[in-house]
């Protein structure tokens, strides 16, 4: 079965750049999406098709995907970005797969 | 505004059954694949099942195959998840979500409904 691996936690100071990775076999050959989830809330799509931002998502959120790793980058991180982040991809044998999630702490 | 509203969660004993519902409003429900995703307490997201626009194709995660059944009624803008032979490990918040086109991500999620399997 296909698996996506994320670091359990990432810490960043306000105003700095947060980088969250998602690894999977030949992930760069699949579209990756990213979701933000705050405590007690439903997930929110922040990146789709590897690099695109839905309307309403701040420009400080960006994504990339190449080789075996997709990356979510948050530039000029703000306190409101403190949340869990999940990557997602489709695999023909496993269907939808989520990464285990990364807790971003803005210190 | 598009809304997905889940219902049907609750406390059930191991081996019991529940039927979850997800009603969509202000959205072209019948034009999209729909999914159920669950999140155990303090854990990550786990995709459970999805269903094609016309209901003719369904997929399930291995752990629920043979126990859960996804269905939809496009006339009622509703998605369902029939859960049988429930186990303690099925305890989770269950979300319904609208799938976008290939690579587009899931743009709409419900608020979730809690299923607790315990004696």
Structural features, described:
The complex is a heterodimer of chains A (107) and B (119). Chain A is mainly beta. Chain A has strands spanning 9-12, 18-23, 32-37, 44-47, 61-66, 69-74, 83-91, 95-98, 102-106. Chain A has no helices and 9 strands. Chain A is globular. Chain B has 119 residues and is mainly β. In chain B, strands 2, 4, 5, 6, 9, 10 and 11 form a 7-stranded mixed sheet that branches. Chain B starts with a strand and ends with a strand. The model of chain B has no long low-confidence stretch (mean pLDDT 95).
Topology record:
The complex is a heterodimer of chains A (107) and B (119).
Chain A: E1 9-12, E2 18-23, E3 32-37, E4 44-47, E5 61-66, E6 69-74, E7 83-91, E8 95-98, E9 102-106
Parallel strand pairs in A: 1-9
Antiparallel strand pairs in A: 2-6, 3-4, 3-7, 5-6, 7-8, 7-9
Chain B: E1 3-7, E2 10-12, E3 18-25, E4 34-39, E5 45-51, E6 58-60, E7 68-73, E8 78-83, E9 92-99, E10 106-109, E11 113-117
């Amino acid at each position: 079965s296909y698996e996506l691996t994320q670091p359990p936690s990432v810490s960043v100071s306000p105003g700095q750049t947060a980088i969250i990775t998602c690894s999977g076999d030949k992930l760069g050959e699949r579209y990756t999406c990213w979701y933000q989830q705050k405590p007690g809330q439903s997930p929110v799509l922040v990146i789709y098709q590897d690099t695109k931002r839905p309307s309403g998502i701040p420009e400080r959120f960006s994504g990339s995907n190449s080789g075996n790793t997709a990356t979510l980058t948050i530039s000029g991180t703000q306190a409101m970005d403190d949340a869990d982040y999940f990557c997602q991809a489709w695999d023909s044998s496993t269907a939808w797969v989520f990464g285990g999630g990364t807790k971003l702490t803005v210190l | 505004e598009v809304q997905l509203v889940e219902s049907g969660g609750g406390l059930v004993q191991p081996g019991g059954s529940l039927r979850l519902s997800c009603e969509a409003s202000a959205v072209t429900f019948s034009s999209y694949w729909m999914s159920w995703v669950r999140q155990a307490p303090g854990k990550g997201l786990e995709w459970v099942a999805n269903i094609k626009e016309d209901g003719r194709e369904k997929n399930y995660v291995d752990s629920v195959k043979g126990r859960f059944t996804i269905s939809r009624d496009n006339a009622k803008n509703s998605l369902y998840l029939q859960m049988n032979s429930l186990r303690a490990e099925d305890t989770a918040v269950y979300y319904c979500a609208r799938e976008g086109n290939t690579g587009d991500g899931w743009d709409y999620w419900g608020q979730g409904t809690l299923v607790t399997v315990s004696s």
